[in-house]
Design brief:
438 residues; Zinc Finger, Delta Prime, domain 3; 8% strand; Rossmann fold; 49% helix; 4 domains; Helicase, Ruva Protein, domain 3
C-alpha cells in the first residue's frame, strides 16, 4: 500500500491510512496481480463491465483493504465495507437490498468489501451467494487463511482467488521513503539514518501497515526530542529492542529461519538451538517458528521417526496455549528432538513426484473394480466387479491392482533404510510382492 490519498481520514488519521493508494499502480508489491489486462485491472477500470468477484488471500499488511478501496473508487462503483468479525446475516441481506435498489434506480453497481471472510460461518457465507451469483454486488473478500478450508465451495467457485505475497524489503523501503516525503505523510520534516530504515524494514516482515505504524511511532519520539533526524536508537524506543539486535547483526529474517531449518536437517542440535534463541530474542512470531518445525518434521524426518510430527504439532499447540516467554520451552524441546531424529525425505519426494505426474496429465482412469458401487446403476456399469476385500485375504493384503493402467509399475514412495523407515521399507517390499502376486 503505497501512494498518497489525502481523502482518506485527513491529517489526523493514522499514517497507514493516509498513505493508502489511489490507483493499482500505487500498490506496493503484488506486481503479478496488477499487470495490464489482469482481473484486478479490469475491475478498477471505469469503462469495464466486469463484475467478477474476487477473494484476496494473503498475510496482514499486503494491501487487501487498499485494493478494495481502489477498485471501488476507480470504477465509480458504490463501496460498502463489512467486517466478518461484527457483521451477520442480517447485515449482509441489508447490503444486498440496498445494492439491488441502487442498481435498479441509478444503474450504479456496488462493491462489497468483506474483511476476514474466514470468520463467517457457512450460513453467513451462503447469504452472500444470491447477490454474487446475480451480479447485484461485486464481492471483494479478504482473508489471511487458506480459502480452500475457510470459504464454502459455492462461493469459491463463483469467485476468483488471488494470492497476495508479503512485501519485499525493497517494497517496504520504498514505502517508508514515500511516507517520509509525501505531503500526506511526514512531509519531509524528518530525515532517517540508513540503519534506522533497515531496522524498520526488518521489523515489518513484509507488512506495510506495521512498517508505517512503526515509522509513525518513531517520528513521534523524534519530535518529542526536538530532533530532525531519526536514529536507530529512536526506532529501538518505538519497537522491540531485541528485534533491532537481530537486525544490527545483519541477520535477515529469512536467512535465520533458513539456517535454523538446515541445522535441524543436518542433525546439529546446538546450531538449531542457537538460531532458535536468536529468533526468540528478536521477537520473531513463535507461531511462525512452530509452523516451520511442523514442516521440517514432515519434509526432512518423515517416516524415519513418525513421532517427530507429533512432537512438532504438540509444540505448536503448546505455544498457542501458553504463549511466550514459556513457549520457548516446547519450541526448544521440539527443535532438539527433530535435530536428533533420523532423517528421511521419502514422503516429501513421493508426493512431489505424484503431483508432477498429475500435472503432466499422467492420470489414467480409476480401475473399474475400485469405483464406487454404492449408487443405483453402478453395478450395471461394472463398478466394483472383481474387487477383493483386503480383510478377507491373508495378512489383509490381496493380490490386486490399485493404480490406473497408465501408471502400473510406477513407484512414488522409495523408503530409506534410516530409523523406523527401515522397517517400513522391508514391509513395503513384501506388500508389493503380494500385490503383484509373486
Amino acid at each position: 500500500m503505497v501512494g498518497e490519498n489525502p481523502g482518506l481520514g485527513g491529517a489526523t488519521a493514522p499514517l497507514a491510512v493516509r498513505m493508502r493508494p489511489r490507483t493499482l499502480a500505487d500498490i506496493a508489491g503484488q506486481r503479478h496481480l496488477v499487470t495490464p489486462g489482469s482481473p484486478l485491472t479490469q475491475l478498477a477500470n471505469s469503462d469495464s463491465q466486469s463484475g467478477v468477484s474476487v477473494i484476496l488471500w494473503g498475510p496482514p499488511g499486503t494491501g487487501k483493504t487498499s485494493i478494495a478501496h481502489v477498485i471501488a473508487a476507480a470504477s465509480g462503483r458504490t463501496f460498502v465495507e463489512l467486517s466478518a468479525v461484527t457483521a451477520g446475516v442480517k447485515d449482509v441481506r441489508e447490503v444486498m437490498e440496498r445494492a439491488r435498489n441502487t442498481k435498479e434506480m441509478y444503474g450504479t453497481a456496488t462493491v462489497l468489501f468483506l474483511d476476514e471472510i474466514h470468520r463467517f460461518n457457512k450460513a453467513q457465507q451462503d447469504a452472500l451467494l444470491p447477490g454474487v451469483e446475480n451480479g447485484i454486488v461485486t464481492l471483494v473478500a479478504a482473508t489471511t487463511e487458506n480459502p480452500s478450508f475457510s470459504v464454502v465451495t459455492p462461493l469459491l467457485s463463483r469467485s476468483l482467488l488471488l494470492r497476495l505475497e508479503p512485501l519485499s524489503d525493497e517494497d517496504v523501503a520504498h514505502l517508508l521513503e514515500r511516507a517520509m516525503n509525501s505531503p500526506v505523510g511526514l512531509a519531509g520534516e524528518l530525515t532517517i539514518a540508513e540503519d534506522a530504515q533497515r531496522a524498520l524494514v526488518q521489523y515489518s516482515s513484509g507488512d506495510a501497515r506495521r512498517a508505517l505504524t512503526s515509522l509513525e511511532a518513531t517520528a513521534a519520539i523524534a519530535r518529542a526530542l526536538d530532533a530532525t533526524h531519526i536514529t536507530v536508537d529512536m526506532v529501538s524506543q518505538a519497537v522491540d529492542r531485541a528485534l533491532l539486535r537481530y537486525d544490527r547483526q545483519g541477520d535477515e529474517h529469512y536467512d535465520v529461519i533458513s539456517a535454523f531449518i538446515k541445522s535441524i536437517r543436518g542433525s546439529d542440535a546446538d546450531a538449531a538451538i542457537h538460531y532458535l534463541a536468536r529468533m526468540i530474542e528478536a521477537g520473531e512470531d513463535p507461531r511462525f517458528i512452530a509452523r516451520r518445525l511442523v514442516i521440517s518434521a514432515s519434509e526432512d524426518i518423515g517416516l524415519a521417526e513418525p513421532r517427530a510430527l507429533e512432537v512438532a504439532s504438540a509444540a505448536a499447540d503448546a505455544v498457542a496455549f501458553i504463549g511466550m516467554p514459556e513457549g520457548r520451552i516446547p519450541l526448544a524441546e521440539a527443535t532438539i528432538f527433530l535435530a536428533l531424529s533420523p532423517k528421511s525425505n521419502a514422503a516429501y519426494n513421493a508426493i512431489n513426484a505424484a503431483i508432477a505426474d498429475v500435472r503432466a496429465g499422467k492420470l489414467g482412469t480409476v480401475p473399474p473394480h475400485l469405483r464406487d458401487a454404492s449408487y443405483p446403476g453402478a453395478k450395471a456399469l461394472g463398478h466394483g466387479r472383481g474387487y477383493i476385500y483386503a480383510h478377507d485375504a491373508p495378512h489383509a493384503i490381496a493380490e490386486q491392482r490399485y493404480l490406473p493402467d497408465a501408471l502400473v509399475g510406477t513407484r512414488y514412495y522409495l523408503p530409506t533404510e534410516r530409523g523406523a523407515e527401515a522397517n517400513l521399507a522391508e514391509r513395503w517390499e513384501r506388500i508389493q510382492r503380494i500385490l503383484r502376486g509373486e
